[in-house]
């Protein structure tokens, strides 16, 4: 009976195939990703098929721009090294930042209904946005934030304020899109609806989960701050604790029709308190003002103009 070696040598095509496989394996071990991995874990014997996957998936991830263009066998996943106490290092598929962001958005959409701001706002992009002179500085600040954001490093947010209909929410929506494309977990909620939802969840359940989502998301966008019907409870037990958990750690983006002094007055005049409570309002403002850059958004009322055109 002929050995495998005899069969290979008797068939030039097989011999060429084996030589090609040998060269491919040698190239694999020379690749910087693999050499670094083996240098770090010299005593581990990783499966060669997993080494190929480790190299190829990590190469494709370097130029990836989102889940839509992912070329990996398991979209949104790449081969990584897992080091767990009590276990030997091993290779396994793990979700990338884009996949984590997608999973987070899907989870929070089922948890927090008030994040469903109008579709045209969530679909806003910086590419299609009109960059007129009245709001160009605010748009630049928003783009700069997205480009420079680093998880665990960026702690300052933005306070976008201006009159009705000038496009503050559209800028925030474009930030949501851009950050999500970059694999950042970001949550945009419409504040008036969110506070009503929180109040309702006292009876229906899930309040703590909702609050925790806002406390821990990498970038939180609070849309239309100051438009809510404020009560002492929503100010002191909802907004206050959320912002307390985030300040100096995680950035928060705000859109508002109110200046800082107007927002202070709004927070002080809770509808269920007999007289203004500027002390508690100041506590909330101390969790906002020192941790944001302020951008006034000017220009025409775009919502009113759109209605006039449609009519």
UniProtKB/TrEMBL annotation:
Residues passing through the membrane, by range: none
GO molecular function, one term: ATP binding
Positions of the IstB-like ATP-binding domain: 153-270
GO process annotations (BP): DNA replication
Pfam families for this protein: IstB_IS21 (PF01695)
Classification via SUPFAM superfamilies: P-loop containing nucleoside triphosphate hydrolases
Highest taxon, organism lineage: Bacteria
Full protein name: Primosomal protein DnaI
